[in-house]
């Protein structure tokens, strides 16, 4: 049985401003179900750019991208949004919670958008995820009332709400202190070990990368390892 | 499409920054309120000025003009009937100023659906005698009921009661200027000499102030019956029929029609008061240009506020898109935000506009020209409220649409990377 969740085939990407500049050259790799992968490399090597392409948020590239064995090129913007909603969970460097909403509502939003479960059920599931990450007691607080480390964990809970095929992180520990970084790593580790969750994390934290199953190293827009 | 979710998100975004929302809504409210107030006030004043003329001027006046008879005897002579005849020193014939067959004409007018009503009238030239002096003046014989109905005769009576001239026999209402000259009080009896030289005592039952001083110095009003007695004429004697139409714009056309039909002279209001037409048009033009300018200025204010509001929410847009909301969802959210601001801002705008107009309506405004007007006039025309509410919705929709469109198109990566 084909276990590949995400596959990139010969991905090329250019930046045009101010001069044409190739950021990604011929990037090909695949991620299997249950993999805990870190994507590392120096600043400017194109790892974030690659992640945004893989997450379908950046659709301006050449090559082929398959998520769950389905090519995503040529899909419409609304379909891509649907894929992101259903199959991909995202964790950013800067938390990006919506300050207008309570913690639990932030977690619930992608679930409500998916509209697969009733609102009560989504709320119940959101609470489950928060409790799992040890922040159940924050559920009713406003997003701006919690600390940075807590925000990142809330963001992870939000990424999990729709049981995505893959969770992608763009330097999720980049803005956190050591203690919180460890906490976030432990959560990813637990997700990977206990729930067999597929994870793709961009990081330049060597200590973090070393402890994942697999490291993809990039340099000057190419995968070197 | 999950509209409930979109609605929830829009509501939360509105309420989370309620101060900003409030300021945006106040911007709309202010614009709409000012528009309503100004237009109500300006058109109110306009209508007042129009009313000065329109209220007391018949749309069509039927009468017999003093002019040379168009049927000169020579035209009826068989020998010259088909010739072109030149006649020198033709004189106007003043044989009869009365309207023939007035009862039939009035019956026909009563059946005409284009006519609101009509009021018969007699004009009699007289001298008012006061011991040693005699003042020339005019006694207008009127039908008080229809005159009040159609031409607001009641509104100009400043002492006594209009109905008294029909109730009290041989009574008269004097123009204020005339009454001052004759030094009479209500209840006094004055002496009037008709053009035929007959003296006639009349009882003063009231004063009238029309707003035109010269007019008030010569004019007086009596019932038709009194005027007929004054002139020694029978009860079917009438010199004028004043007609009020449903549509004032048809006056010139109908005047021609009636002139032909009744063999009378007919003068329409547009011809009689052409300077009024121009004045009224210019005033309306001014009101509307001010109103439209106000709306445009308010529109740009609304656009600015909404634009800023949406650009401030770029982070939220990025995160919504990253978690699976499509461009269309984002656009809907912001359109909903914009429209809510437009709706509630507009609603309060209408409300405050009404309140402000009502306040202006209470400010006292006394003018000699209009004895019945005590406060500034306001035109509570529902059309202004309709324009105001429609405009607030359309402007907020448009000013929400442009930034929302941009937000829906933007790649979330651009925003996230820009951090």
Report on this model:
- The complex is a heterodimer of chains A (225) and B (419).
- Chain A contains 7 helices and 10 strands.
- In chain A, helix 3 crosses helix 4, helix 3 packs parallel to helix 5 and helix 5 (148-160) packs parallel to helix 6.
- Chain A has helices spanning 47-54, 77-87, 103-114, 119-132, 148-160, 178-195, 206-210, and strands at residues 4-15, 21-32, 36-41, 62-67, 70-71, 88-91, 166-170, 198-202, 214-219, 222-223.
- In chain A, the strands form 2 sheets. Chain A has a 6-stranded mixed sheet. In chain A, strands 2-1-4-5 form a 4-stranded antiparallel sheet, with helices on one face.
- By secondary structure, chain A is α/β, with parallel strands linked by helices.
- Chain B has 2 domains: 3-54 and 277-417, no CATH class; 60-66 and 94-270, no CATH class.
- In chain B, strand 6 and strand 7 form a beta hairpin.
- Classes of the chains: A alpha/beta (225), B alpha+beta (419).
- Chain A binds chain B through residues 48, 52, 55, 57-60, 77-78, 81-86, 90, 92-94, 96-101, 105, 109-110, 112-115, 158, 162, 170, and chain B through 2, 5, 8-9, 12-13, 15-17, 315-316, 318-329, 411-413, 416-417, 419.
**Which percent range fits the helix content of chain A?**
25-40%
Helical proportion of chain B? 55-70%
| Molecular shape of chain A | globular
Terminal residue distance of chain B: 31 Å
Largest sheet of chain A: 6 strands, mixed
Q: Judging from the principal axes of the Cα atoms, what is the shape of chain B?
A: elongated
Question: At the third CATH level, what is the topology name of chain A?
Answer: Rossmann fold
Which regions of chain A are unreliable across 5 or more consecutive residues at pLDDT < 50? none
Counting helices, strands and paired strands, the structural category of chain B is alpha+beta
Note poorly predicted spans of chain B.
Answer: none
């Amino acid at each position: 049985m084909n276990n590949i969740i995400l596959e990139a085939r010969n991905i090329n990407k250019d930046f045009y401003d101010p001069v044409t500049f190739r950021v990604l050259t011929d990037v090909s790799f695949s991620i299997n179900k249950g993999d805990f992968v870190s994507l590392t490399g120096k600043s400017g090597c194109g790892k974030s750019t690659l992640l945004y392409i893989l997450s379908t948020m950046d659709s301006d590239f050449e090559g082929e991208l398959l998520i769950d064995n389905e090519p995503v090129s040529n899909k419409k913007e609304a379909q891509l949004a649907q894929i992101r909603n259903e199959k991909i969970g995202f964790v950013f460097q800067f938390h990006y919670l919506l300050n207008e909403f309570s913690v639990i509502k932030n977690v619930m939003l992608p679930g409500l958008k998916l509209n697969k479960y009733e609102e009560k059920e989504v709320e119940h599931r959101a609470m489950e995820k928060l409790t799992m990450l040890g922040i159940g007691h924050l559920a009713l607080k406003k997003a701006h009332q919690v600390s940075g480390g807590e925000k990142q964990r809330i963001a992870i809970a939000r990424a999990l709400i729709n049981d995505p095929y893959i969770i992608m992180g763009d330097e999720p520990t980049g803005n956190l202190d050591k203690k919180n970084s460890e906490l976030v790593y432990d959560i990813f580790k637990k997700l990977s070990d206990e729930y067999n969750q597929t994870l793709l994390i961009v990081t330049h934290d060597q200590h973090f990368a070393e402890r994942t199953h697999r490291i993809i190293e990039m340099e000057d827009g190419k995968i070197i390892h | 499409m999950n509209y409930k979710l979109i609605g929830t998100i829009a509501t939360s975004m509105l309420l989370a920054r309620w101060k900003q929302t409030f300021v945006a809504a106040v911007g709309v409210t202010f614009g709409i309120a000012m528009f309503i107030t100004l237009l109500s006030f300006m058109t109110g004043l306009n209508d007042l000025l129009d009313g000065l003329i329109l209220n007391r001027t018949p749309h069509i006046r039927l009468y017999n003009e003093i002019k040379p008879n168009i049927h000169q005897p020579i035209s009826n002579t068989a020998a010259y009937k088909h010739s072109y005849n030149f006649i020198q020193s033709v004189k106007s014939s003043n044989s009869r100023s009365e309207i023939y067959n007035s009862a039939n004409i009035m019956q026909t007018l009563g059946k005409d659906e284009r006519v609101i009503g009509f009021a018969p009238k007699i004009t009699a030239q007289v001298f008012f005698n006061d011991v040693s002096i005699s003042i020339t003046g005019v006694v207008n014989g009127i039908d008080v009921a229809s005159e009040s109905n159609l031409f607001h005769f009641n509104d100009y009576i400043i002492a006594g009661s209009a109905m008294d001239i029909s109730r009290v026999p041989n009574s008269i209402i004097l123009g204020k200027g005339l009454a001052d000259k004759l030094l009479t009080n209500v209840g006094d009896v004055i002496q009037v000499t008709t053009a035929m030289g007959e003296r006639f005592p009349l009882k003063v039952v009231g004063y009238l102030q029309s707003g035109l001083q010269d007019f008030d110095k010569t004019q007086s009003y009596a019932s038709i019956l009194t005027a007929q007695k004054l002139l020694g004429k029978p009860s079917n004697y009438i010199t004028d029929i004043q007609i009020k139409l449903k549509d004032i714009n048809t006056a010139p056309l109908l005047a021609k029609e009636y002139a032909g039909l009744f063999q009378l002279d007919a003068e329409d209001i547009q011809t009689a008061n052409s300077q009024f037409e121009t004045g009224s048009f210019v005033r309306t033009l001014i009101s509307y240009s001010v109103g439209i300018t106000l709306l445009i200025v308010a529109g740009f204010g609304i656009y600015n506020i909404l634009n800023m509001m949406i650009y401030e929410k770029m982070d939220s847009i990025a995160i919504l898109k990253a978690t699976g909301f499509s461009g269309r969802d984002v656009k809907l959210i912001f359109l909903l935000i914009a429209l809510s601001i437009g709706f509630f801002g507009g609603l309060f705008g209408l409300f405050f506009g009404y309140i402000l107009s009502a306040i202006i309506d209470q400010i006292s405004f006394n003018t000699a020209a209009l004895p019945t007007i005590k406060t500034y006039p306001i035109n509570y025309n529902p059309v202004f409220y309709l324009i105001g509410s429609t405009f607030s919705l359309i402007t907020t929709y448009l000013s929400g649409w442009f930034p929302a469109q941009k937000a829906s198109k933007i790649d979330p990566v651009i925003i996230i990377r820009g951090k």
